[in-house]
Amino acid sequence: MRVLVVEDEQLLADAVATGLRREAMAVDVVYDGAAALERIGVNDYDVVVLDRDLPLVHGDDVCRKVVELGMPTRVLMLTASGDVSDRVEGLEIGADDYLPKPFAFSELTARVRALGRRTSVPLPPVLERAGIKLDPNRREVFRDGREVQLAPKEFAVLEVLMRSEGAVVSAEQLLEKAWDENTDPFTNVVRVTVMTLRRKLGEPPVIVTVPGSGYRI
């Protein structure tokens, strides 16, 4: 899942991004509304965590732009105000969910995951294919009943492949979904991660390399 965090309190923004990355999400961070519009115009995000009171371009206008473009991106709006009228106004603008500050990080994570599930074709809560069971909420993976311990990026790559339901996923698509914009697209990070993932999942191999196209399970 790829997430954009838009928050002008830089310490909070960076802390949220770090926490979501630990949950195997690819996260980009910006600190004002103008930068948010720029990123949204370039990258495809599953969820935007959007502070309402932003400099340069207000969060309401960023949200309106997402709606205007007809994007599948879901918006979780944040605000320091917990008034019901503010929550209603944010939802009427086009936000998909609303979370007042201060918030528990566990709740933020749960809401981001819930919104992320709504950006794609509905799938069972536990993904199963080729003897692999992957639970995105518990961050657990089993191969033929054996638990497999994965690093966050390995988990993210496996989740993308599992969600593709047998379709080929290119290295570029894996970069888009599992890494943030600071990753050099010309590195071999995808290949190395897939190799490590194959080793951890064990024999027989379940991740197939399709020459010139990508990978599939």
Automatic annotation (TrEMBL):
Q: Single GO cellular component annotation? A: protein-DNA complex
DNA-binding region coordinates? 124-217
CDD domains xref list? REC_OmpR_CusR-like, trans_reg_C
Q: Which segments constitute the OmpR/PhoB-type domain? A: 124-217
Q: Sorted alphabetically, which SMART domains does this protein's record hold?
A: REC, Trans_reg_C
Q: Name one GO biological process term.
A: regulation of DNA-templated transcription
Function, as annotated, reads: Member of the two-component regulatory system CutS/CutR, involved in the regulation of copper metabolism. CutR suppresses a defective melC1 gene, encoding a putative copper-transfer gene, probably by altering copper metabolism.
Can you say what this protein is called? Transcriptional regulatory protein CutR
- Native species of this protein? Streptomyces zinciresistens K42
